Amino acid sequence: MGLIKVGRLKIGLSNEEGENRLMWFLNQGCVISCFRDLFYQEAVATERTEIVFIKKEFFFRFIRSNQDNLDFFLDQLYKKYQYCINILLTEHKSTSKVRVYKLIHQLGKNYGQIQSDQSILVKNFLTRMDMASITGVHRSNIIKYLSELENMAIIKKEKQFIIIKQPQTLEKLINLAD
Fold this sequence. Notes:
Layout: E1 2-6, E2 8-14, E3 20-27, E4 31-32, E5 40-45, E6 50-53, H1 56-64, H2 67-90, H3 96-111, E7 113-114, E8 120-123, H4 128-135, H5 139-151, E9 155-157, E10 161-164, H6 167-177
Helix pairs in contact: 3-5, 3-6
């Protein structure tokens, strides 16, 4: 078990056949655990990261010592579980374009910082390969859809960040397509 003291990790899972997928990001204060034999995990630090490793017995004793500790841990598990179930239920229902739009929207909602003009700044934005892994959309199409959004002045791309200039318009595009 581990606790991210500082930083951020990208967590990817793969199966025995080598199929892999970027699953989620873990930020400061998140717990890292393993899936044992079911999946192979890959953790990549996206910035300077410090992890405190804890023996499982000590960790569970800590969790049971206080209701707030247990609630925090369960909240993290539920979010991951909900994300996985959501992916399974919606994976083939949306077009590739909508999956990319939804990913950008979710990143803004979960990791973005609202700016004074109501745009949303997302730092340490995903690579095109990460986006392809999450959405199942080919990297060339990711680039195409991001360019379309940029041409419509909905987003602005930079190397390490993206600005969602019109979050409401992005949400409307998603809703119209669903």
